[in-house]
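[Automated response] Your request has been received and processed.

Submitted sequence:
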Amino acid sequence: MSNPFYLDWTFWAFASSLLAIALSQAPPIVRWFGKPRLVLELPNQMRITHVAGYAAAGVVLSIRNAGSKAARITSLSIKFRRNGEDLLDAPILEFHPDPRNAQALLLMPFSVAAGVEVTRSMNAYQQLPRDKDRKLSELASRVRVDIGKKVELAQANRDSFAPLGSMVTLDARLLQEAQSMFEANFCWKAGDYDVQILCRSDEQAEVRQQKLAFTLWESDEAELKALADDYQYGFGIGLTHERHAKGVFVTLRRI
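Generated structure:
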């Protein structure tokens, strides 16, 4: 009569080998079936500004993948609500690869591996309908051409262009067009704002973030409106300027 299989040492040796193989493959299997879990964090400040009245914002965003699988992030945007009502969605279109350099690059889809954290300084801009986007681009182009020609003429005449008082000024019709666009589209009114980062990925990753809010005071609104005073020199509408890029900083609070 043969011995039962459970008394056969060769059976247990074979079973132990199978168990060892299964355990060695467990981590890859978990990663295969797991999902990315993205944790989004912002510092306690956000930069608010505008382009011809259209909203723009700057954030330093930290993205940590706490899941077991890499995530390929395809788009990011910032959703703003004012006094409890939806205001706008601003797609994040640029990032600064070097914090010491003001140069921004177009934001392309990027991957965040499991257990990795990525922190980037990013710029978001209000999404415009095709016709408004075309009008803004055309106006900015005409502003650059007008200012460029006047600067060349001033330099040819050896006029000083450095002091503010001697800066060349924009054609009156272009200035009126820029101011009208600003007045029609300025949306940063004083009030209480809710902020949410919208993150989309190929893997439909789980996204976790704290609810954030800030208050835009009347003084902030006035400072943002005052940026339109620089349109007479082309700044903020066709030419870049540090004051317009900076805008105002608002303090974020957890809610």
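Summary generated for your ticket: The CA atoms of residues 23 and 224 lie 60 Å apart. The two ends are 75 Å apart (CA to CA).
If you did not submit this request, please reply to this message.
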